[in-house]
Amino acid sequence: MIEYRHNLEGITDDALSGFFVGWPSPPSVSKFREILEKSYAVVLAWDSERSEVIGFATAISDRVFAAFMPLLEVKAEYQKRGIGSELVRRIESQLGGMYSIDIVCDPELESFYSRLGYVSLCGQAKRFRSGYANTTFT
Ligand SMILES: CC(C)(COP(=O)(O)OP(=O)(O)OC[C@H]1O[C@@H](n2cnc3c(N)ncnc32)[C@H](O)[C@@H]1OP(=O)(O)O)[C@@H](O)C(=O)NCCC(=O)NCCS
What we know:
The chain is of the alpha+beta class. It has one domain: Aminopeptidase (3-Layer(aba) Sandwich). It contains three helices and five strands; from the N terminus they run βαβββαβα. The chain has a five-stranded mixed sheet, with helices on both faces. β4, α2 and β5 form a beta-alpha-beta unit. The longest helix is centred in the middle third of the chain and has 13 residues. The chain starts with a strand and ends in a 24-residue tail after the last helix. It binds coenzyme A. The site of coenzyme A has 16 residues, from β4, α2 and α3.
């Protein structure tokens, strides 16, 4: 059964592994845990039979006006069952009445987000794909 959770209580590093598929420099599990702990809002999709996190979404925010969703992922074997959409809906409800919630996505995901009410805007982004700032994803 899939449950949705908002904290990491009792979740081991093993149960958090298997994400960031295809990333050139994925964060380690301990860095992933830190990302989840320090985000403004987090939703985890939890397979209670396998005791495993199978999807997650994060949001960062000024806590008043604007939020950004940097990460959303559902493990391949659980995709196309509505879990990704549910993670977005649940993180939106955690964010409450903010003016803006922004995401950046590849063009093929535009239809996924437009069904959830998102519109395409022009934007610019910089990515430090071989690590970030002064340190690496260790
Ligand atoms: C994007 C992602 C989170 C969607 O999760 P999911 O659980 O499969 O989403 P849902 O089941 O709610 O999908 C809803 C709809 O979007 C479509 N969809 C999902 N992923 C898609 C993709 N990669 N490309 C095109 N359409 C997609 C599904 O086909 C589904 O449509 P349907 O109801 O007509 O079948 C998942 O594909 C994923 O983790 N991808 C890899 C990481 C990624 O790209 N994250 C997004 C960063 S912006």
